[in-house]
Design a protein that fits this description.
The protein is built from 4 helices and 7 strands; from the N terminus they run βααββββββαα. It has a single domain, classed as START domain (Alpha-D-Glucose-1,6-Bisphosphate, Chain A, domain 4), CATH 3.30.530. The longest helix is centred in the last third of the chain and has 21 residues. The protein is α+β, with helices and mostly antiparallel strands and 171 residues long. The radius of gyration is 15 Å and the shape is globular. Belongs to the AHA1 family. InterPro entries: ASHA1/2-like_C, START-like_dom_sf. Pfam families: AHSA1.
């Protein structure tokens, strides 16, 4: 996490307690409602919300521009309720890492560190993402997509915000 030139960093504040936001990041029943770009649906094939566990899922976009894509997290660290570290990337239906069809030069793996800070009943989430063992071309593609990633994560976090607002209790 040392290279500020290549890291993607995004901050977002949620009107929910830290413990609840943490659950949104680590429990399949919640991830299914908000993970992925705005407008997609998630089908979870496997989820083990623990260090060494896997979150294997399919994102469907209603047929456009692609029918669906598989993704995978490998949870490295889960420290309730303040930190989640996972490696994500594209996958095939069996869960093996693969190159994305729409982004063939994208890094095979990206390490994401999410920290949560309590702010008077609200939660500030900081996402820090960096490619792992990426070629110069893959790093350049990652950096070139920072603005698009901000929009994509922003859309996902908009969906998370709406999902949090619908929950019967915020803590």
């Amino acid at each position: 996490m040392a290279n500020a030139d290549t890291a993607f960093i995004l901050r977002r504040t949620f009107d929910a307690p830290r413990e609840l936001v943490f659950k949104m990041l680590t429990e399949a029943e919640h991830l299914a409602h908000w993970w992925g770009p705005k407008g997609c649906t998630i089908a979870i094939k496997r989820h083990e919300g623990q260090p060494g566990g896997i979150f294997h899922y399919r994102m469907d976009f209603g047929g456009a521009p692609v029918d669906g894509m598989w993704g995978r997290f490998d949870y490295e660290e889960i420290a309730p309720p303040r930190r989640v570290v996972f490696i994500n990337g594209f996958a095939d239906e069996e869960g093996a890492r693969t190159r994305g069809t729409m982004l063939p030069v994208w890094p095979l793996e990206v390490r994401n560190t999410v920290t949560l800070e309590e702010q008077g009943g609200r939660t500030e989430l900081t996402l820090h993402a960096e490619p792992i063992d990426a070629s110069p071309a893959e790093v350049a593609a990652f950096v070139a997509m920072h603005a698009s990633m901000a929009q994509g994560y922003g859309g996902s976090f908009d969906v998370l915000d709406a999902y949090l607002a619908k929950l019967p209790s915020k803590g």
